Amino acid sequence: MTSPFGGPARTAPGPSNLPTPPTGWPVGSYATYEEAQRAVDHLADADFPVRDVTIVGVDLMLVERVIGRLTWGRAIGSGAASGAWFGLFVGLLLSLFTAGGSSFGPILVGLASGVVFGIVFAAVGYGATRGRRDFTSASQLVAGRYDVLCQPRNAEKARELLAKLAMGNSPA
Hints:
This is General stress protein. The chain is of the alpha+beta class.
């Protein structure tokens, strides 16, 4: 295979960037990610080759937690605030390249422009929903359980170490 620039194509070292299903034998199953992480940490502490281990979230759910009610005032206020931050950033950059004089002019112009554009974009975005989404929320991907998989060459040793963890015995 050749690249469009005339030389041989190079592949990046490490895992593939394409989604691939996990491989390995199940060595443990946990109700929370924290428990699965603790299990893998236990394996690492026992000098286990953790490159053979994968944590897999099973029964995935998208959880959207409602934070509050969204009104015109909140939408415009949020747009003004985010526009102000962006405008301040642009104003600071412009002030670096201003020759002589006060450097506060570009900062104030950037800040004011950012607020105006932030309000306009927020109003247009909120108005486009026509009241179908009058709330704010945060989304999170959560699994019903977390399985720890291990490559077959070390799966039995991983099961033994995790059984000791479950019984409360830690390796010395």
